Amino acid sequence: MNRQGPLPVLFSLLLLAFGGVIGYLIGSAQVGRQCSLRYEARLHRCLEKKRATTQHKAIHKTKTRSSLPVRRITAPKKHDDMSFLTGPINAPTVIVSKQLRAAPMLKPTVLKVFAALPSRSFTYAENEVPSTLHPYLARKPVERRLARLMFEPLIGKDHVGRPIPMLASSWKRLDDKTLRLRLREKVVWHDGHAFTAYDVGWTISCMARLPQTLRQRRLLQALHKVVLVDRSTVEFVFKTSPSAPLPLLDFPILPKRPFPKKTPTNEDFMRAHRSFGKKPLGTGAFQLHSWRKARMIRLKRTLSYWRRVSPQEGSRWIGKVNAQVIPSREVQAGVFNYGALQGMLHLLPHEAAVLKDVSNANIHRVEGRRRQWVLWLNHEGLLGEYVLRKALSMSLPRDVLAKLYTPRADQRSGPLGAAMKSLYAPEKAEALLDKAGWKMTVTGFRDRMPELLSLRMILCKEWKDMKKMFDVIERSFHKLGVRMEVKWLSRKEWERAVYEEREFDITFMTHQIDDLRDLMRYLHHAGDKALAKMKGRVWETWFEKTYKGRHVSATALRQQFASHYDKTLPFLFLWSTPAYVLLDKSLMNVVFGVDSLFSFVDRWHVVK
């Protein structure tokens, strides 16, 4: 029997002890590493929480600094291409004086300027259904007309365009850059709350986030700050000395009270204003009474209106204005003859000639307003070639078209003056096409292999009474060798094809174009119509030049524009006609405004 000595046993014990020590050391290292990782993660969470808390306090402090959304701006950056005219714009600084901050709040009061005298309603016809009555979100003519009756500016215009006091009773130039306005007293909103300087500051702050006209955009660019001195005093401080600041102040004033104090996102801001457009609240002579969708909008007289108008002896004042939506002009005429309407707007000369013999009606010619008849061309297709556009223009027998449709057409007063006049020369038009490579084929149409000269003209079914005129246009283009595809669409389909899908080559329109301002909304890519979507440094320069000064409708400027851009203009001018309004004979003291036909409806009287 073999016996082990003490040495192997001792060696085994030492080996076990060494292994235990090594295992202990390895385990301790792993535990230490885990503890270190947990400590680092905890420290990282603490630092992130502290950073988030600090940032939240800073944001909260910024938001609650003032109830007005004050935005401070730095000096504008210089852009060679003037693209800042169409980009986002910052609101000028609105400063509330200590005196106004310390003033107590006013209680709502209804000031009865005059009692409810016997009155009559004025009902007129509109072609479109309004979608909003917000003065800044209004895009359709019916929306702008109705909003003009409910909202008022600081400085308005009389019937010839001269500045007149509205919500501002007086003004004074303190220096070259500062204009002080004294607000009219005893003016209340339709809910009875007083009109104060806070409402002016609120409107200026909101204007930068709402859709603006180009005159309002010009005002925001020119303003440095607005100081609310007290309840009835506001100072406008401009960056440079303005030559004519009063026309820039013709913007509608919004009430501050109906809107939430905090609108953190632009979506919340626009949602609040869209809701306000359904239930508007202004200072105008009329306020919203009822709104039946797609049928009638009723406005009633505001008894607390600041301007007192007494009817003449033997007459009554207008107590209600009703806008009846009737798309068809024939139905409008029938309802007028029946006696349910007292007004029809924007009549064309041939329509006025038909209705002039109505026994109970008066035809009023609106001075200074002319309807421009044009064929709009889509530059994205074949008509992007200037030779084609010029040949089409020279092939149109404008004299024949004008006599066929209206005897009062004027071919010399186009949207850009006499420079737009084109001569009737079909032989020269054919020579131009031959020179450009468009050869006549045996089919009677031209082609430039492998492309056929084929154009698509879309028309609205509401223009069926002008079908003879469109037939002459189609035959004229056929003689030139152009294959025409004419398609008649409903109003909604036509608007989608023209403004959204742009699936057309030629279409017809009549516009109220009094100067370059009205034309630029269709030409420039930032316009609300944006048919042509013109871009580039040169167009941005004309965009600024058009809206910079007062004399934008000067003939010299229009002709300079026409001669400079004759090769890029996307329309063919046909002729212009005066605008007419049909009103009931019982309406007296009728005066039309420069910007809106209904600027002075509160002064109209109705004979008993």
How would you characterize the largest beta sheet?
12 strands, mixed
Shape annotation: extended
What is the number of strand segments? Answer: 22
| Rg over CA atoms | 35 Å
CATH topology of the largest domain: D-Maltodextrin-Binding Protein, domain 2
Notable traits:
single chain; 608 residues; alpha+beta; D-Maltodextrin-Binding Protein, domain 2; Dipeptide-binding Protein, domain 3; twelve-stranded mixed beta sheet; five-stranded mixed beta sheet; 16 helices; 22 strands; extended
Question: Concise description?
Answer:
The chain has 608 residues and is of the alpha+beta class.
What report would you give on this structure?
Helices cover 34% and strands 23% of the residues. With 608 residues, the protein is of the alpha+beta class. Strands 2, 9, 10, 11, 12, 13, 17, 18, 19, 20, 21 and 22 form a 12-stranded mixed β-sheet that branches. It has a 5-stranded mixed β-sheet with strand order 1-7-8-6-5. α12 links the parallel β17 and β18 (483-489). α9 (386-394) runs antiparallel to α11 and α10 (398-405) packs antiparallel against α12 (467-479). The radius of gyration is 35 Å and the shape is extended.
List the helices and strands and how they pair.
Elements: H1 6-63, E1 93-96, H2 98-102, E2 119-126, H3 141-150, E3 155-157, E4 163-165, E5 168-173, E6 178-183, H4 197-207, H5 214-222, E7 223-230, E8 233-238, H6 266-278, E9 286-292, E10 296-301, E11 315-325, H7 329-338, E12 343-347, H8 349-355, E13 361-377, H9 386-394, H10 398-405, H11 426-435, E14 439-440, E15 446-448, E16 451-452, E17 454-460, H12 467-479, E18 483-489, H13 491-501, E19 506-512, H14 516-523, H15 537-548, H16 555-564, E20 571-584, E21 587-588, E22 605-607
Parallel strand pairs: 1-7, 2-11, 2-12, 17-18, 17-19
Antiparallel strand pairs: 3-4, 5-6, 6-8, 7-8, 9-10, 10-11, 11-22, 12-20, 13-19, 13-20, 14-15, 15-16, 21-22
